[in-house]
Amino acid sequence: MRTRVFGPASLAIALLAIASLVLAACGPATTPVPPTQAPAPTAAPTKPPAPTQAPAPTQPPTAVPPTAAPTQPPVADLKGRMLKVGSDTTYPPFEFVDTKTNRIVGFDVDLVNAICNLINCKAQFITTNYDTIFVALSQKQFDMVASGSTITDERKKTVDFSDSYLKYGETLLVRAGDTTIKTKDDLKNVKIIVGVQTGTSNEQTAIKLVADPAKQVKRFDTFDQAVAALIAGDINCVEIDQPAALGYMATNPGKIMTISEEFTSDDLAFAFQKGDKEMLDAFNAGLKAVRANGTYDKIKDFWFSKWTAGAPIP
């Protein structure tokens, strides 16, 4: 075996190579790039920052009227139903059209809306003639009737009534300063003409009070027509519920008045389609709740005291 002999040049190159390898092995390892560190937390300010404001809603919130029910858990759940409410909207202060805003307003309107706040529903009031209102309800044109309606046995045959929401007496409206009629007994005079609204319990009361119904009882489609006839001198009086009498006195200041006597004692209630237990139970629960939380009293006080005394409609 022959041995390879290195020359001086070759030996120098070899020594340089070996030195390089030794230096590489013994030198410091390559320093890895450290991961980017998160910046140190900013020191807390000496004063707490102002809380972040919630963004403004895209639509303005609905203003809560003074008569609205206080916020509380639903007492029943009609699942957001929109209810068609039949109503003769010519009967202040129960339901009538505000001439300034063209809105249907009144005691019944506020009471139904307050109850709906607690039973998860909404009400759409629909103006209709009173003399056919219960027939329309029984034919399912409406979900309910809210129209200052008296509970009667005859009506119970075709509709279901809620619990009573108001007890009242009936009275007579006469022209201001007219002393011809002082009590209901004066209606026995056959010369006295009594105005009533067709289809109302007031019509039935008038028939019983007069001597000759055929001659003495004059029927009108609405009570406001009867009141207009009274003011014009076409009739002598209007047989009407006491709360409604106050309403017409408020809308006709100084022109009409009531006699001092009240007669009968009746109950007003909401009417529902026969057998609609879900609606009936929900509204009875809601009515009980608005009585308990004070909303009912606020509504009643506004419409039967403040509004009749001249307070503006909110």
Fold and architecture overview:
With 314 residues, the protein is of the alpha/beta class. Helix content is 33%, strand content 22%. The chain has helices at residues 8-26, 107-119, 133-138, 153-156, 201-209, 213-216, 223-232, 242-251, 277-292, 295-306, and strands at 81-87, 90-91, 95-98, 103-105, 121-127, 144-150, 159-161, 166-175, 194-197, 217-220, 237-241, 256-258, 263-273. The strands form two sheets. Strands 1, 5, 6, 7, 8, 9, 10, 11, 12 and 13 form a ten-stranded mixed β-sheet that branches. A three-stranded antiparallel β-sheet has the order 2-3-4. A hairpin with a 3-residue loop joins β2 (90-91) and β3 (95-98).
Q: Helices and strands in order, then pairings?
A:
Layout (H helix, E strand, L loop, with lengths): L7 H19 L54 E7 L2 E2 L3 E4 L4 E3 L1 H13 L1 E7 L5 H6 L5 E7 L2 H4 L2 E3 L4 E10 L18 E4 L3 H9 L3 H4 E4 L2 H10 L4 E5 H10 L4 E3 L4 E11 L3 H16 L2 H12 L8
Parallel strand pairs: 1-5, 1-6, 9-10, 9-11
Antiparallel strand pairs: 2-3, 3-4, 6-13, 7-13, 8-11, 8-12, 8-13
Helix pairs in contact: 2-9, 2-10
Features:
single chain, 314 residues, alpha/beta, D-Maltodextrin-Binding Protein, domain 2, 2 domains, ten-stranded mixed beta sheet, three-stranded antiparallel beta sheet, 13 strands, globular, disordered N terminus
What's the number of domains?
2
Discrete helix count: 10
Overall shape: it is globular
Query: Structural class, from helix and strand content?
Result: alpha/beta
Q: Give the oligomeric state of the chains in this entry, treating copies of one chain as homo and distinct chains as hetero.
A: single chain
Helix share bin? 25-40%
Average of per-residue pLDDT values: 84
Largest pleated sheet: 10 strands, mixed
Give the CA-CA distance, first to last residue: 122 Å
- Low-pLDDT stretches: 1-70
The CATH topology of the largest domain turns out to be: D-Maltodextrin-Binding Protein, domain 2
What's the helix-strand series? HEEEEHEHEHEEEHHEHEHEEHH
The CATH superfamily of the largest domain is Periplasmic binding protein-like II
CATH class of the largest domain equals Alpha Beta
- Mind telling me the C-alpha Rg? 41 Å
* CATH architecture designation of the largest domain: 3-Layer(aba) Sandwich
Number of strands: 13
Percent of residues in β-strands: 15-25%
